[in-house]
Design goal:
The chain is α/β, with parallel strands linked by helices and 391 residues long. The protein has two domains: 34 residues; 350 residues, Rossmann fold (3-Layer(aba) Sandwich). It contains 16 helices and ten strands. The protein has a five-stranded parallel sheet, sandwiched between helices. Helix 6 packs parallel to helix 11, helix 7 crosses helix 11 and helix 7 packs across helix 13. The protein is elongated, with a radius of gyration of 25 Å. It starts with a helix and ends with a helix.
């Protein structure tokens, strides 16, 4: 009799738990159905967002190449090193994203160091920031060929690492275009060295909930409950962003690191006989009056993670202050964080990545500052002399 009561009790508990889980799944179904759509990054791009509305290259093949190229390369203890890749739209040759339109007569290099926005995986080779920059430089000189030294996830510390390993020649130009990855990795994640092989994001990728719990729940037929838990997790502020004092301290330290990295890059370039230019890159967070489309990007937790704007707000205050200090030392450092503000076109795909229209604006801004710094040379440029003798 006791044995039967025990079995009956266990069965009652199991049935109760099943019914409870079934009720949770039913409730979750209605909640998930009512939630605003938050597609992931690649789902969002596959739906041809407004930023791609005027992009003739947009296609399934291009998106596939874009996604594949993003994963090309390996991390070591210092940086990510790109492997070569040959696609229709995206090519990585000699471990650098291919830059088009270099003049045959070019003798000096323009190295553009930065993260994924310089790499420009959102567009074909001809429409990257370095390729636009090449064409802008071609308008007044045929001396330079531009090298895309952009690597996804690279912060200013890693840019400096790559620069110091790059032999420069007299007359070369070095461009640093950064800020985003210093805010993401130094402040948001708390990795002052940047994303490297042993970063916690690799060792504990997405955590136990994502890797173990949710797959187990889905496997047992409770997919809507799993989706709801995933949404709640995605909306939650990361633990390392909950202590405002700690975040402020990381932002201050990121600013100090930023200053030292830019200063060291400038000194190495000048010592090598090269010119140096630095730019704090623009983001969607600096747009003063976001459009309805841009607000969708900001509100999508998979495109703009929770509390990321806080990290950027504090970080960019520090970075802007350091630019003022660098400028006082004679470093050609510019705050370009607001140059995409006020444009009617939609070109953002998330909080920092954009399409060719933004790349053209950015390249034009960089080129104008390089040109103003090379006024003596421009007067002797073969192309400039030809223009001077044109009726």
């Amino acid at each position: 009799m006791n044995h039967r009561k025990t079995i009956l009790g266990i069965l009652t508990i199991l049935v109760t738990l099943f019914l409870f889980a079934l009720a949770l799944e039913t409730v979750s179904f209605f909640i998930v159905k009512a939630l605003p759509g938050h597609p992931s990054r690649w789902e969002f791009r596959a739906a041809k967002p407004l930023a791609y509305a005027n992009s003739p290259y947009y296609s399934t093949q291009f998106l596939d190449e874009s996604r594949r190229a993003e994963g090309v390369g390996k991390f070591d203890e210092h940086v990510r090193r790109l492997d070569n890749y040959e696609g229709k739209y995206i090519k990585i040759r000699n471990n650098h994203r291919h830059t088009t339109d270099a003049p045959i007569a070019a003798k000096s290099a323009v190295y553009v160091f930065g993260g994924s926005t310089v790499f420009s995986g959102e567009v074909p080779d001809t429409l990257t920031i370095p390729s636009f920059l090449q064409r802008e430089l071609n308008k007044f000189t045929d001396r330079y060929f531009v090298i895309n030294a952009g690597t996804p996830s690279m912060n200013s510390n890693q840019q400096l690492f790559y620069l110091l390993a790059t032999p420069l020649n007299i007359g070369d130009i070095v461009v640093f275009f950064d800020g985003v990855n210093d805010a993401i990795y130094n402040i948001y994640y708390g990795y002052p060295q940047g994303l490297v092989k042993n970063s916690p994001i690799f060792r504990q990728h997405k955590g136990y909930l994502i890797n173990k719990v949710l797959p187990a729940i889905k496997k047992r037929g409770f997919s809507h409950l799993a989706d709801l838990l995933l949404f709640i997790n995605a909306r939650s502020t990361p633990p390392n962003m909950r202590n405002t004092e700690d975040v402020a301290a990381r932002a201050w330290q990121a600013g100090q690191n930023y200053y030292q990295n830019i200063k060291a890059a400038h000194e190495y370039s000048i010592k090598s006989g090269a010119s140096f230019y630095h730019f704090l890159q623009p983001t969607l967070f600096k747009v003063e009056q976001p459009t309805s489309y841009e607000r969708v990007l900001l509100n999508n937790v998979y495109l703009t993670p929770p509390a990321l704007e806080q990290a950027f707000h504090l970080g960019y205050l520090e970075f802007s202050a350091q630019i003022s200090s660098l400028t006082s030392l004679g470093v050609k450092s510019f705050d370009a964080s607001g140059i995409l503000n006020g444009h009617e076109r939609e070109f953002f795909l998330d909080f920092c990545h954009a399409t060719e229209e933004a790349n053209e604006i950015i390249a034009g801004f960089i080129a104008s500052n390089i040109r103003s710094g090379l006024t003596g040379f421009i007067k002797m440029s073969p192309l400039n002399l030809a223009e001077a003798h044109t009726p």
